[in-house]
TrEMBL record:
It catalyses: ATP + protein L-histidine = ADP + protein N-phospho-L-histidine. It is an enzyme of class 2 (transferase). This is histidine kinase. It holds the Pfam family HisKA.
Length: 399
């Protein structure tokens, strides 16, 4: 699992970073929310303090010296004595407190500074008080700088801790994948030799036999060869670390004939008629022959397993347009509810009808292989009226 060229290793590497990023995002959001709450509380407190200071200044009047950064203006006097900042008082604000008891508060910027302004009518005398927010702005800037530093430090800490936690969380999965690959490789190695011997002996017996026995032995030879190809695919997949197999032109019509011929004995024993029909050919697609053969075998096995004696199965090939090849497996079996048309391709899904039939793993693997070939597969059925599976792939010359 150390090679970055390994798709599984790349997937685990991405998973580690995804988990790390998620942890970092959560921590950053928590710090940002906490910082936002702290900033909001500071801003609210500063505004409330400024409002209280201005109200108290107007209450005391210009005879008392206002606190620092505060200016008070009445029609007759202003405090503190001496020159005041340009723009004070503001004549247009007097009209906002025209009646006794009226109070108007706002925040306005002029002269390069922001002020909290309170206009109050006390007994017919309108006063304007100005609170300079210089130090409050500095406090807010200091808080924002501190929050930014805290956010950066929290993000770095989250990345480091998230990476460690992600590696610890992913390690069991990496070990499981390594054991799985080792098992597949070891099992494939162990199966290769006996399957090769079985295939060789079947070939020898087929050469010595004739008639019906010879035909049956030829089917046995093809079956052992296909099983050997499956084992070889498993071994190559394990050795190549799940790399993409090489695609070659595959004639679906030939595969259909071979798969139907391989199941002829089973179909005959179950008194099920099975046939291959064609519209127009050729039916060549780009794919992995062994994988597509297993797809057709799985579809035919599913049809045989759900078709009662006396029924029929038809494998039809056609070209719905100039870009696609279409293969259908239609049976007269028990079918399934329309609601299960998508669920049957899920791993170990159960049906929605009364018997809760379990569909197993085969159809799920079929969809994975078909999707991997850039194709689609769909199922249509009704209870008691059979089922039709439609496989559609791109033609070889268009892939």
């Amino acid at each position: 699992m150390k090679s970055r060229g390994d798709p599984e290793a790349r997937a685990l590497h991405r998973a580690r970073w995804v988990i790390t990023a998620q942890i970092a995002v959560v921590v950053s959001l928590l710090v940002a929310v906490a910082g936002g709450i702290a900033y909001g509380m500071l801003l609210s407190g500063q505004h409330a303090d400024a409002d209280r200071t201005l109200a108290r200044t107007i209450e005391l009047g210009p005879t008392a010296t206002p606190p620092g950064c505060v200016w008070l203006f009445t029609p007759a006097l202003h405090a503190p004595p001496g020159p005041s900042p340009a723009g004070m008082p503001i004549a247009g604000l007097t009209a906002l407190a025209s009646s006794p008891g009226d109070v108007h508060t706002e925040r306005r910027s002029f002269g390069g500074m922001t002020y909290t302004i309170r206009v109050e009518n006390r007994g017919g005398v309108v006063s304007q008080a100005f609170f300079e927010e210089r130090y409050q702005i500095q406090d807010r800037s200091s808080l924002l700088f501190g929050l930014g530093v805290a956010e950066l430090l929290a993000l770095l800490a989250a990345v480091v801790c998230g990476r460690l936690l992600a590696s610890r969380a992913i390690r069991p999965l990496a070990d499981a994948l390594r054991r799985q690959r080792t098992f597949v490789e070891d099992a494939s190695h162990e199966l290769r030799a006996p399957l090769t011997r079985l295939h060789t002996r079947a070939q020898l017996l087929a050469r010595r036999s004739s008639g019906r026995d010879g035909d049956d032995l030829q089917q046995l030879v093809r079956g052992t060869r296909e099983l050997g190809e499956v084992v070889e695919d498993l071994l190559l997949s394990a050795q190549a670390c799940g790399g993409r197999p090489e695609l070659v032109p595959v004639e679906l019509g030939v595969l259909a004939d071979e798969v139907v011929a391989a199941e002829a004995v089973r179909a005959g024993a179950g008194r099920i008629r099975i046939a291959v029909t064609r519209e127009r050919g050729p039916y060549v697609v780009q794919g992995v022959p062994t994988a597509l053969r297993r797809v057709l075998s799985a579809l035919l096995d599913n049809a045989l397993g759900h078709t009662p004696p006396g029924g029929s199965i038809e494998v039809s090939l056609g070209a719905p347009d100039d870009e696609h090849v279409e293969l259908r497996v239609r049976d007269t079996g028990v079918g399934f509810p329309t609601a299960d048309a998508d669920r049957i391709f899920e791993r170990f899904a159960r049906g929605t009808d009364g018997d809760g039939r379990r569909f197993g793993l085969g159809l799920a693997l079929v969809r994975e292989v078909v999707t991997g070939h850039g194709g689609t597969i769909a199922a249509v059925a009704r209870p008691g009226a059979g089922a039709t599976f439609t496989l559609r792939l791109l033609r070889a010359d268009l892939t």
